[in-house]
């Protein structure tokens, strides 16, 4: 049989030469042979006579032994060619061969490798992968993104490393990265259609910002485009997806379990995760999902043998869309969103206010509908190449960007947040700033074709929309607590509180406490401990509520400095109560 070709891989020529020179190896009483027509096994019968060669599969090359940085998770880097002449590589975990090998055969067949239907030959495939001699080494990683100064993509690593770095995927979900068309074609169609539309420019800038977060040292976070049906939200998502892959595959749905989001987050590490239709997530899971994606760490789980497995980790930006907000989704399950959850997913009104939904400029098209169709068609035709070029730029300029980005973020934040803004507002402003910087850098390295400052203007406009929806520059949780307390007394002040001087014949049902005349003819409500804890503080930490109310001058502490006071009450004697001074806002 003829000698095999030199495998096309990311390994050096020296590493490849050893593997390429081997055409057979012993196994049991026979031998495996690798030829241009496939992998064969030459066995012998019980009398020692050589049998007819058994064809196992089309040519399959074992390129290197893979392992992680801790010398665990060993595997094999495999390579083969499908019927269209496309070269496939797979960093296969060796643990997949410790069953019947069906998972390995299924994945190889899915990607175009012809495998013998003969049961004996199918079993020999696992043995061939295990015993084929190979000296070359490659470092495997279980997540995409930055690994030192190298950025790992599904198709290979960008940047120099001591040895080849490959993505060893043990997840059931496939990365959706793909390339079609050139950077110039993407710029002249997709990026050009976004120009002049703040929400679209912002969405594209988010796509560039995901890979910048690690360099900048910024945390994970999300943006949510909220608006009515047909307002153009999905158009923005497809536009952003085109930076990295085909929108039809790259855009995912919120529908599914929180556990499923862990796998998706890992596959989009140091990148952009796009989730459409937030209304499809289970309301009871919505808040947990927001925390999960931004906290960057999955749950600790046990492996099949009972050992604790390392939890999955990631850093990413995610872009979401839906007709309603996170807080409204949670309300369907009777849950109240916290400020922490809401700042993790910054809510932006999709309607740009120009009477055309998400659009402000039609760029030569007669109406918003025709522009949306043009964006969809262009994104489907040209995608992925600009993301790869962006990564090459980041890898080449990583060191200088580490000093440049923080200063740019500081300038943006200083320019958009009001004086004495709460820390929550500044935290979200930094995320918008990262997006602005990413968009401007992508423009600087001639990827977008936009004018200088367009990405910054879009980020400023979207931040202003978020701040308005958020309710101002103060602490959101404090405002929510004060609003809830105000609503409680507006609703129940006249029906569930007794006059402190009332007689026993004037008792009321479902009593929450008592009232007495206070300063400036206002009322002071003496709230009983359980009513305060269960109703006034509902949904919030009790200590936090007390602190906020005392700082606002609403809760009057006792002479001992404690939040509650000892007051003598009719029928209850001396009791500790929470004294709330209630005034109308207009006073």
Question: Describe it for me?
Answer:
- By secondary structure, the chain is of the alpha/beta class.
- The protein folds into 3 domains: 13-167, no CATH class; 183-470, no CATH class; 476-582, no CATH class.
- The strands form 6 sheets. Strands 20, 21, 22, 23, 24 and 25 form a 6-stranded mixed sheet that branches. Strands 7-6-5-8-12 form a 5-stranded mixed sheet. Strands 14-15-18-13-19 form a 5-stranded parallel sheet, with helices on both faces.
- Strand 5 (61-67) and strand 6 form a beta hairpin.
- Helix 5 (198-209) packs across helix 16 (454-470).
- It is elongated, with a radius of gyration of 31 Å.
- The model is unreliable at 1-20 (pLDDT under 50).
Descriptive tags:
elongated, alpha/beta, 3 domains, 5-stranded mixed sheet, 587 residues, 25 strands, disordered N terminus
Strand and helix map with partners:
Blueprint: H1 13-20, E1 24-27, E2 30-35, E3 38-42, E4 54-57, E5 61-67, E6 75-81, E7 87-93, H2 102-110, H3 119-131, E8 137-141, E9 145-147, E10 150-153, E11 156-158, E12 165-167, H4 183-194, H5 198-209, H6 213-216, E13 221-226, H7 233-241, H8 247-250, E14 252-253, H9 258-267, E15 272-276, H10 283-295, E16 301-302, E17 308-309, E18 317-322, H11 326-331, H12 339-344, E19 345-349, H13 368-381, H14 385-416, H15 423-444, H16 454-470, H17 476-492, E20 497-499, E21 513-517, E22 523-527, H18 529-536, H19 542-551, E23 555-556, E24 565-569, E25 573-582
Parallel strand pairs: 5-8, 8-12, 13-18, 13-19, 14-15, 15-18, 20-21
Antiparallel strand pairs: 1-2, 2-3, 3-4, 5-6, 6-7, 9-10, 10-11, 16-17, 21-22, 22-25, 23-25, 24-25
Helix pairs in contact: 4-13, 5-7, 5-15, 5-16, 7-13, 9-10, 14-15, 15-16
